[in-house]
Design a protein that fits this description.
The chain is mainly α. Helices cover about 65% and strands about 0% of the residues. The protein has a domain of about 80 residues: Cd81 Antigen, Extracellular Domain, Chain: A. α1 packs antiparallel against α2 and α2 packs antiparallel against α3.
């Protein structure tokens, strides 16, 4: 279990590097760090439990049970906090994404991240392709289209034009 949690925490941190322009708040990594810390603690607790069982120590097994109960309470607390604050996180991420989309010019590093995000997640805009109509890039190009990263991957001749939304 500790190895699985370590993998999940490491995967989240590694994935964060691709989307760090959208998540300006560094506390977004806090759950991943907590998962890794829990994995380390679980490994140590597992060793205590194994040693206590091997030595048939009542004190060691009692300590093992108490630690497991504390971890269970911490997990339930983390779940409840995540459930309570999910809308705030969603609003914060959407606001940050809108500001990054507003800086899009097709050349800067933020533009590269936006293109990567849209291609990887098979999406266009924050909610849909109409989000692009309010951006500075859309108004400056004047060609009534969205970036080519919005195009569906199976569409070879997609131009990003808004009069062909089936291609986006």
């Amino acid at each position: 279990a500790a190895a699985g949690l370590s993998y999940v925490g490491g995967y989240v941190i590694n994935t964060y590097k691709s989307y760090d322009n959208f998540l300006q708040d560094k506390y977004a990594l806090l759950p991943a760090v907590i998962i890794i810390c829990v994995a380390v603690v679980m490994f140590i607790i597992g060793l205590i439990g194994c040693c206590a069982t091997f030595r048939e120590s009542r004190v060691g097994l009692g300590l093992f049970l108490a630690i497991i109960l504390v971890i269970f309470i911490a997990e339930v607390s983390a779940f409840v906090l995540g459930f309570i604050y999910r809308e705030k996180v969603k609003t914060d991420v959407q606001g940050t994404m809108r500001s990054v989309f507003e800086k899009y010019d097709g050349k800067n590093p933020e533009s590269t991240v936006v293109d990567y995000l849209q291609e990887q997640l098979h999406c266009c805009g924050v909610k849909n392709y109409s989000d692009w109509t309010t951006t500075q890039w859309f108004n400056s190009t004047g060609n009534n289209s969205v970036p080519l990263s919005c195009c569906r991957q199976d569409m070879k001749n997609c131009t990003g034009r808004l009069d062909q939304p089936q291609e986006l």
